[in-house]
Each structure stands twice: as C-alpha cells, then as structure tokens.
Amino acid sequence: MDTARPVPRRRGRPGHDVDAVLAAAVRLFNTHGYDATSMFDVAEALGITKSTLYHHVSGKEQLLAMAVDRAVDGLFEAAARVRDAETTATVRLKELVRSSVLVLAQRLEFVTLLLRVRGNTEVEQHALARRREFDALVTELARQAQAEGGIRADVDPATAARLLFGMVNSLVEWYRPERGRPEALADTVVQLAFDGLRTIDTTTDRGDQPEQ
Amino acid sequence: MDTARPVPRRRGRPGHDVDAVLAAAVRLFNTHGYDATSMFDVAEALGITKSTLYHHVSGKEQLLAMAVDRAVDGLFEAAARVRDAETTATVRLKELVRSSVLVLAQRLEFVTLLLRVRGNTEVEQHALARRREFDALVTELARQAQAEGGIRADVDPATAARLLFGMVNSLVEWYRPERGRPEALADTVVQLAFDGLRTIDTTTDRGDQPEQ
DNA sequence: GTCTATATTTGGATAGAC
DNA sequence: GTCTATCCAAATATAGAC
Hints:
Two copies of one chain form a homodimer.
Chain A: H1 18-32, H2 39-46, H3 50-56, H4 60-83, H5 89-106, H6 108-116, H7 122-147, H8 157-169, H9 182-195
The first copy, chain A, binds a DNA duplex through residues 14-16, 38-40, 48-52, 54-56, 59-60.
C-alpha cells in the first residue's frame, strides 16, 4: 500500500501531516484539558484554520483516540517483551516496572493524556478497557511473584499492582525529559518500589540492574 | 429544634443548602469532568433549575473553589498534627502518609477533584500553589528523615516525596469506601512505601528460590 | 426559593471558493 | 491545502414573575 513518495514531510510552511496535528493537539489537551481545548485552539497552534484542520482529521475525538492508542500500545509492547523473558515472575515484574517508566518517559504526553481519560465516551471507554487489561497483567505477575516467594505475600496482589503503578504513573505529574536520564529515574522507582524507603541495610543484597 | 432556624436542613423536597449543592456538583465534576459538567447538569441532579442553582452559588468556579479548599484543608490539618508530634522525622513522615490516606478516604471526592486540577484559572492556580506548599512540607520531612538516618539517603528527597505521594494519591483512582476500612489500607500503603514489595525477610535473597 | 424566558458566547462541524 | 462564511447546538449567566 505504501508505495513511495506521498509520505508527507515537515516543511517550512504549513504542509502538516497527521503526526504534527496530533502532537499539537495532545500538547494542548494536556495543558488546558481535552474539553477546554477547542478545535480552533488546535488549528491556531498549527497556524491554520479550523476548516483546514478538519481536512486532516475527522474530528476531535479521533485525535483523542489516536493519542491514547499510542500510549497504550507502548505499554503493551513493554508487557509483551517481559512476558517472553525467561526468568522469574519477580524479575519480570521489576522489568515491567522499569520498562513502563521508560515508555512513560518516551511517550510522556500521550501517556499523560491516557491517564486523564475518565470513560465518558466510546473512545475513552475503550482506552479504560485496555488500561484494565494492562492492570490485570500486572496483577497476575504480582500473584506469580508472591507464589514464588519473590515479593511479600501479605498484600493483595491487585492492591500491590495498583499502588505500584500508582507510583509509576504519578511520574506524568512532574517528570520532564529535559532534566535527568529516564533510565536513572526508572532505577530509582524500581528500588523504591521493591526495597522501600527504609535505610539501606548492607546485609541485604537487592540484585538490581547493573545499569548504573 | 435548633436554636435558630437559619441552619438549612435536608428536607424531603428542595430546600437545599450549599453543602448539598457542593456534594452534587463535585460528584458530577468527578464523573464527567469539570468542563463537561454544565450548571444545568448540577441543577438537574438536585431537582431544581439553573436559575435556582444560581440563587445558591455565585457560579461554577465558586463550586470548584469550595471543593478544592475542602480537600487541601484536610491535608494541611494532617500536616499540622504531625508537625506537633514529638518524635523523629521518620516517624512523622510515616504518620503523615498514614493520615493523608485517611484524609483522602474521608474526603475522597474532594481530593479526587483537587488532584485533577491543572491550573488554568485563578482558582486552579491557587489550588496548585497550596499543593506545592504541601509537597514542600513532605520534601522537608523526607530530608530530615534522611539526615537522621531513618530513610535511605541515596534518593533525592523531593523525588522520594513525589513518588511517595504519587502512590498515596493514586488511591483516588480505585479506592471505594464501601469495601475495606481505610485504616487497613493506610497500613498497607505505609508498609509498601517504607519496606517495599520485597519479601518480609529474615534472610534476604533475590527471590528466586523455588516456589514456596 | 423556585420558576420561565432569554441574552450572549462559544464550540464542533460543513459548504464551497481558490 | 487552505481559506471565508455559516449552521446549529450547548453553555454560562441574568431578568423578572410567582
């Protein structure tokens, strides 16, 4: 299908492609809220008119759908990678947390938007359903990790999964790519999640990632 | 029989007071979003008309202001209580986490709304400013706890505070008062935050022991 | 305290010219 | 691909009667 040239490229003036439109829209959605952002605002940010904007996308909801898909796809790709890893559930859970932080950092604006979706339209409900699917994956991983004795068994795995990813997801509230490598942050999150805030005690070894 | 009648009572029909209006508004704001909720929706939920609603409150933004104040006041009351406690910073930090979970549970809908505020109006900016103030308090407590050796010192205290309360705040996404005592949840959160997910140990290891 | 209008603005979306 | 002009629906808020 994708023969050749019609690939739209970023040029000096207008000539926008869907990606550029999406990027501008998502930025505005996150800054001012989805509802508070008008199609006029999106068009203005791109330097075009509303009519021209509608020439590129079918409507406001489609912009939202594309954005949350991009976020959710990233998380599921991370989940698929750890699923195929041949190691303990505990290590896979750690790896999933780590990967999720990286996905969140790489697709920050898309994930931010995803996490603010409440489920009032079909598009939003679909996004929520996929989030629940991801949650179920994490919960199952936590359950297995408990079964193998890798993590504490005195907490409901669903609760643990929620609190764990509650911490991860809260990154969208303050993480900014310009300061700090995401890998370092991912390590911090994994350490805090698995070892807690308590003082490092030299008699224990955490077996964490070699990546400094 | 109250001393005087000006205290508006919950009655069969209308006769609403500001608290009832606020409760209805906040529920709708959380369910459908602040922007997506019209003053008509609020009025309809109360069984009155828009005009009557405007007789009770000065406008939509005032409803938001009252709601977020109620949330933020709760958090600062908790902070004031731990500040006066005569104990280590580490214990006070734990207590603040614990109290915050309880405040969050008690004023769930108000806190939920607070955490969704983005700062696009004066009211929202004021709410954000108070949240930052609270964050600073937590960060300072974390710094003191590190200084006294109560919590690990290899993590920036601001980062620790954010991740810690990221976990706490994520409760609004799934906690429902009808299932489970908030005190039990608060204990779980404190345990996870301070001791981590790792197996309660005596002899720690990496967790790849054979099952059980 | 509650109602029935209604003023005014803004938003999503389309038609059709260039 | 971009524009001007416009339609139509919905939202905040007010006026003024009962």
